[in-house]
Amino acid sequence: MKSIAFFITLFIVLTACSQEDKSKRPSPPDLVTVKLNSGTTVSINYSQPSVKGRTIGKDLEPLPGKIWRTGANEATVFEVDKAVTIEGKSLPAGKYALFTIANGTNWTVIFNKKWDQWGASDYKDADDALRVNVKADKAKAFAERMKFEIFRDGRVSLLWGDIDVDFTVQ
Q1: Does 21 fall in a domain?
Q2: Residue 40 carries which DSSP code?
């Protein structure tokens, strides 16, 4: 009986330890942080899914009209150290889960107050701090792995497959 308990304990410990190294995930973590010309620091902490020959919007998120965590694994975290405006709308300093809804070239970018959540399973629109509507464009180059870019002028770009979705932080 003691050997069964030992092996169960060993399995739990090894499983927990193996999950600590997020860089080994199929969708590895990434963090981009930039200090804008305005002095505000913007950070996006997310996991990078890969296309792997699948079709975005059909075999792969975002699916049309559905909430997406805008990445993989845990919800993507968008953080600003000062109050900002995004597409002209106010957002207080703090951490937010970043979600999107894609509808063709019309995208809704959502900043949700419950930043520490897994994916979109716990998402509630009642917790939204801000929603902005933006246009998606065709990307200049194909992004096999989803990524965010933040520019010092405040432009934030989401690049995924042949999609480029931009919003402005001021």
Answers
A1: no
A2: -
CA–CA separation, 7 and 84 (whole Å)? 52
Whether pTM exceeds 0.70: yes
Q: pLDDT tens-digit profile of 20-51? A: 676 676 678 999 999 999 999 999 999 999 99
| Average pLDDT, rounded, for the chain | 90
For 103, the token pair is 């509808």
Q: How far apart are CA 61 and CA 99, in angstroms?
A: 12
- Which of 143, 137, 128, 129 shows the shortest CA–CA distance to 155? 137
- Domain of residue 81 covers 26-168
Looking at the domain assignment, is residue 90 inside a domain?
yes
DSSP 72: S
Based on the structure, what is the number of domains in the chain?
Answer: 1
